[in-house]
Amino acid sequence: MAESIYILGDEDRAKFARLIAAAWADEDVKARFEAEPRELLAEYGVVIPEGVPTPLLPARPEGEFSVEDLQVAAGAQVEGCVGTAGTLGTIGGCAGTAGTYGCA
């Protein structure tokens, strides 16, 4: 049986980007994603249909990373974003505005 392919929409990609930022900043979140990805995705508002594999958590880049890096990790193709996600970790505790912060 072929695997289904599910593409996250813009809103879900922004939610997944917040989850990625939280996992990159907090080992407990990362471990929880590895143990129960569907449950954690649902807590961030992303529901993946049954039978569709959950997206993988991308590796955290070395050093500082840009908001564009975070958005691309979540599946977006972004142009014109500036800033660093390192400063976003304190906004709402888990990069609450990573989906739009610093974008024109």
TrEMBL record:
<dbReference type="InterPro" id="IPR049803">
    <property type="entry name" value="RiPP_thiocil-like"/>
</dbReference>
<dbReference type="GO" id="GO:0046914">
    <property type="term" value="F:transition metal ion binding"/>
</dbReference>
<protein>
    <submittedName>
        <fullName>Thiocillin family RiPP</fullName>
    </submittedName>
</protein>
<dbReference type="GO" id="GO:0003824">
    <property type="term" value="F:catalytic activity"/>
</dbReference>
<dbReference type="InterPro" id="IPR036648">
    <property type="entry name" value="CN_Hdrase_a/SCN_Hdrase_g_sf"/>
</dbReference>
